[in-house]
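Work Package 4 report. The design task specified in the project plan requires that, given a folded chain encoded as structure tokens, an amino acid be chosen for each position. We show below one input record used in the internal validation round.
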């Protein structure tokens, strides 16, 4: 995607194909001498058995500038935890596997719940939040990156490009968001971004009027990417959503806490493919059905917090406006795909739009019925204020799990 377009809201750092990986790696190694960098990998045990994870591990083992890799492991029993530790032993860097389902970690979670501070539900958000807490407790990293563990097209230059904007001490960026073209198997992918988020933001601007927050979100070329890099000084006050609104929630936190000049998006790959979620139209609790509802709620909550008033009539108008906007964009996507020799199933695309339109109403109704609902896990600053020993005990629990399951 070679261009130099800037949208005027946040900086866009392009890949102009003028610099090789070795040169960037050398500079990152120089930064790492005074600014330690860590990587968080939130993963399910089942992802260790996919074709993506061995490729990711092979690529990461060649990365020289990382100080630490933190693997948050979900849905694993004791035998699977031991296997995971053996699996990740191939990493040459200092690394740790956090067994989130261990009895010790469950005790830590119960300790939070007794104070009313426990995560609302399991999932990627809770995994990321726990890993961030562990990293904060280490007190030795200046920069942190996060990426998913199901990336089929992973190469280590993705990480180099993702982490560089916040690792470079001469840059002003506190947060970098990765973006890329969602193309795989000769298809145009990225359904939720293309068919929900983009037309929803257009519709919201028409229905509720100009909002700086909407312009900010629309500035991101791929707002739902799972690839972030941040300077660690912002982590203790970062509110992590526990539901499928994680990516939008983190962008909203950057909007809440930082000036736009401190946020950038960076092109990290020419093409990107990963595990695809099913639409699950028959089950509102799973797949893209659940994801789309949670994303809508995350956006509505943020707008309401900034003073936007929502009513049933607003949501009915929003649904109709979204539907028209989504169909208009579908025409553009169809032309784009055809010109580039890609396939696009218009029937499936329109079925997705119809489901997302219904979920805008569902999310709106849920918001109106319970406007105080919040999926955010308490910040680590609040955890530390309530229980000053918690971070130290979290480190101890992780270490003892490792010792017990050699």
């Amino acid at each position: 995607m070679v261009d130099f377009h800037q949208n005027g809201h946040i900086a866009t750092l392009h890949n102009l194909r003028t610099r090789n990986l070795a040169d960037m790696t050398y500079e990152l190694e120089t930064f790492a001498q005074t600014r330690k960098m860590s990587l968080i990998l939130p993963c399910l045990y089942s992802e260790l058995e996919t074709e993506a994870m061995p490729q990711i591990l092979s690529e990461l083992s060649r990365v020289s500038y990382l100080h630490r890799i933190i693997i948050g492991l979900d849905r694993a029993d004791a035998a699977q935890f031991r296997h995971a530790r053996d699996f990740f032993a191939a990493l040459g860097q200092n690394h740790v596997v956090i067994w989130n389902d261990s009895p010790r970690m469950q005790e830590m979670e119960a300790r939070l719940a007794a104070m009313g501070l426990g995560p609302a539900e399991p999932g990627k958000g809770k995994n990321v939040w726990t890993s961030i807490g562990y990293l904060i407790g280490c007190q030795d990293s200046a920069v942190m990156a996060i990426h998913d563990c199901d990336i089929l097209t992973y190469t280590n230059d993705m990480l180099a490009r993702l982490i560089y904007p916040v690792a470079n001490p001469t840059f002003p960026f506190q947060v970098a968001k990765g973006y890329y073209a969602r193309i795989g198997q000769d298809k145009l992918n990225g359904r939720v971004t293309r068919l929900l988020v983009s037309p929803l933001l257009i519709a919201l601007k028409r229905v509720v009027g100009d909002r700086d927050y909407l312009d900010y979100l629309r500035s991101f070329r791929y707002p739902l990417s799972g690839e972030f890099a941040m300077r660690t000084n912002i982590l203790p006050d970062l509110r992590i959503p526990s539901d499928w609104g994680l990516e939008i929630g983190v962008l909203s936190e950057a909007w809440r806490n930082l000036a736009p000049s401190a946020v950038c998006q960076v092109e990290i790959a020419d093409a990107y493919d990963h595990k695809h979620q099913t639409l699950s139209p028959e089950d509102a609790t799973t797949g893209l059905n659940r994801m789309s509802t949670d994303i809508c709620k995350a956006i509505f909550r943020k707008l309401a917090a900034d003073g936007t008033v929502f009513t049933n009539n607003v949501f009915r108008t929003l649904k109709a406006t979204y539907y028209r906007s989504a169909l208009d964009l579908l025409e553009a996507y169809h032309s784009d795909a055809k010109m580039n020799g890609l396939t696009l199933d218009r029937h499936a695309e329109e079925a997705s739009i119809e489901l997302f339109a219904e979920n805008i109403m569902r999310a709106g109704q849920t918001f109106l019925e319970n406007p105080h609902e919040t999926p955010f896990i308490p910040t680590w600053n609040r955890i530390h204020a309530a229980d000053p020993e918690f971070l130290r005990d979290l480190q101890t629990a992780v270490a003892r799990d490792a010792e017990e399951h050699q």
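Residues 312-339 form the longest helix (28 residues). Validation will be extended to a larger panel in the next phase.
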